[in-house]
Automatic annotation (TrEMBL):
Residues 174-200 are annotated as: Disordered. GO terms for molecular function: peptidase activity. Residues 183-200 have a biased composition (Basic residues). The keyword Hydrolase applies. Belongs to the band 7/mec-2 family. The lineage of its organism: Bacteria, Bacillati, Actinomycetota, Actinomycetes, Pseudonocardiales. This is Regulator of protease activity HflC (Stomatin/prohibitin superfamily). It comes from the Bacteria. It comes from Prauserella isguenensis. SUPFAM superfamilies: Band 7/SPFH domain. GO terms for cellular component: plasma membrane. SMART domains: PHB.
Length: 200
């Protein structure tokens, strides 16, 4: 093999390594880099150097505030009244590493399929659980939607902050008695909720 061919091969390999060593990360995103199957670093927006074939990107995380619309679902209150409550939650990742590695098993991976849950799916589970727990402590004459949203946000935020996610706001959409609800509280509950939601 001639010296010129060797030179070309060396230059080509060096160029390949140079290209693979540069990791571009989009604005408002972060990349989680693992080395040897273990956490190594978090790469922020821009260009980051990595060791080719040794450093791998496990996942990318969106750093923007995200909006999560949770469909209306039946919730049973402490007086056994069934109401349908819809929620919109606003959240953001504040600790990239924790959002990937510190989520509990049931929030990180589906038990049956083993599929990894997204951060949004984990937040949805936490918010829904907080809503159900809160609804179970208040009867059908409970507080207005803004108060419900604040309490659900506080509880969900306390849980989510353990794995690097901040639940910044929770909005409760108008609550309606479920078709299966029975009892004299229906009209009163309906009126109370709408009165609260119409506050300036």
């Amino acid at each position: 093999m001639s010296a010129s061919v060797v030179t070309i091969v060396v230059v080509a390999v060096a160029a390949l390594f140079a290209v693979l060593a540069v990791l571009p990360v989009r604005p408002m995103q972060a990349a989680v880099i693992e080395r040897g199957g273990r956490f190594h670093a978090v790469a922020g927006p821009g260009l980051t150097l990595r060791v080719p074939f040794l450093d791998k990107v496990r996942t990318t995380v969106d750093l923007r505030e995200q909006v999560l619309h949770i469909p209306a679902q039946p919730v049973v209150t402490s007086d056994r009244t069934s109401v349908s409550i819809g929620i919109t939650a606003y959240f953001a990742v504040v600790d990239v590493r924790a959002s990937v590695y510190d989520r509990p098993g049931d929030l990180y991976r589906e038990s049956e399929s083993g599929r990894e849950r997204s951060v949004g799916e984990s937040v949805e589970r936490v918010v829904t659980l907080a809503l159900r727990e809160f609804a179970g402590t208040d009867g059908s004459n409970g507080p207005a939607p803004d108060i419900v949203g604040n309490r659900v946000r506080d509880e969900a935020d306390r849980t989510a902050m353990r794995w690097g996610v901040r639940v910044r706001r929770v909005e409760v959409r108008p609550m309606e008695p479920s078709p299966s609800s029975h009892g004299p509280h229906h009209g009163q509950h309906h009126t109370n909720i709408h009165r609260g939601s119409n506050k300036p």
